[in-house]
Amino acid sequence: MLAIGVLALGGCRGVQTSGEKQARHDFGTIAGNYRPDNQRPALPELTPESSLSNYLAYALLNSPVVEASFYDWSASVESITVTRSLPDPQLTFQAYIQGVITSLMPGFAWSFPGPGKLKARAGVAAAQSQGKYFTFESVVLQTTFNVKRAYYRLGLLEEQLRLKHESLLLFGEQERTAHAQNTAGSASLADLLRVLSFCDQARTDLGNLEDSRRSLMENFKAALGLAPDQADPPVPAHFEVSRDNPDADELLRVAFTHNPQLKAMEADVRVAEAGIKVAYKDRVPDFSAALMADVKASPWLYWPQLSMSLPIWRDKLAAEAAGAEAEKLAAQSRLKAAQIDLAVNFAEKSFAYRQTGRNLTLIEDELIPRTRQSLQTIRAGYRTGTMSFSALTDAERILLDLQLEAAQTRTDREIALADLSIMVVGLAPANAPLLSKAAQP
After folding, report:
1. Which of 87, 170, 259, 407 could bond 159 through an S-S bridge, CB–CB 3.0 to 4.6 Å?
2. What residues form DSSP beta bridges with 100?
């Protein structure tokens, strides 16, 4: 009979709570694409022609940081089932021996938490699981931002190298011209020395930029989830430039709706609210039941047993309830503080984005065209002898500096936009392994 009972109970399953069902549904939605059967899907092939979205998809699938956060979330979903399940039943055995066995009593015992206790504890676990999801979402967004930042910095390096190579060729040509003119007596030694200084500075800058490539490539590899001993990813042949010009008011509204840090703190409030229910449920007694049978007796003798806990320590129960209430108030205050911080952070990041945008417009639309026009005028004057060689070299150097500043400002603008839209607002790329906004808890 006991063996039959054990086999029957071995197939028992508990009743899922609504929070557990939602958590498992949400997790299955992500796991089906991100880690089907706990296996990483095939990574996108990266080539020099790959788009930024390909690099992002590769990083999100390959990053060990994202994977670790995903499985932390997975563990928290499983903990809901553990928390809402009844304690395991117990098989008991008792015997009386006086030289021989006079009584042999196998039995069965089971404990039952008071009504509503398991459901309340499952509510805490479900709210904690929601918080783990938003932690996972934050990690996904951070990885996305890291890839974009490394991508644009690598693009800046390529543009700087191109401009420095062009300037070195230009200064080399000017050096030959100045040397010939100095030999002929039409240019001063000061002009020649000036050009030589420009050439030396350009070679040094070029060497420093080449030396920085290794560091930038390691950052790019790390953002893609590649180990140092793995092969370098291909450098993009073309770096994409964003055309977005977001509306600040709309972005701020979206930030308060989608920011994962705020969502995680809202989940903390729900954890605290569920904790209050648990604290009040502790006033309900727990129960246990047991049944033993003396199989040596004829007929068998049965020994039923019932017990109930007595929650008599009122000060302890009151302290549990007061502590849970305090945790809720603290969580609500942290949420309000985070909302204030978000508004301040948004203002700072949006200002940085607008500032770099204005500076880039000034440099590309005003300063560079005027400098090119001035350079053409100085070149024409130099050919006719009305402009000095030093004026020509100064004008060409100013144009180079403006082009380098435009490249730096363009990169700063892209990083500022990524920081604003991804980290502050919480807008993820289309291929991110995240729940749709409608499906989020």
Report:
1. 407
2. 98
- The one-letter code for the residue type at 338 is A
Q: Which amino acid is at 324?
A: A
How many CA atoms within 13 Å lie on the side-chain side of 409?
17
For 255, phi then psi, to 5°, come to -60, -45
| pTM as predicted | 0.88
Can you read off the two tokens belonging to residue 368? 């560079």
- Contacts with 355 (C-beta within 8 Å, 6 or more apart), sequence order: none
Domain ranges for the chain, please list them. Answer: 2-32+50-425
Instruction: Provide the residue-wise pLDDT of the chain in tens; the chain has 441 residues.
Output: 555 555 455 567 888 999 999 999 999 999 999 999 999 999 999 999 999 999 999 999 999 999 999 999 999 999 999 999 999 999 999 888 887 888 889 999 999 999 999 999 999 999 999 999 999 999 999 999 999 999 999 999 999 999 999 988 888 877 777 777 667 666 667 777 877 888 888 889 899 999 999 999 999 999 999 999 999 999 999 999 887 778 888 899 999 988 999 999 999 999 999 999 999 999 999 999 999 999 888 889 898 999 999 999 999 999 999 999 999 999 999 999 999 999 999 999 999 999 999 999 999 999 999 999 999 998 888 777 788 878 888 898 899 999 999 999 999 999 999 999 999 999 988 889 998 643 444
Quote the tokens at residue 432: 């991110």
Instruction: Tell me if residue 93 falls in helix, strand or coil.
Output: strand
Residue 289 has which token pair?
A: 């039941």
* Closest C-alpha to 123, from 16, 283, 282: 16
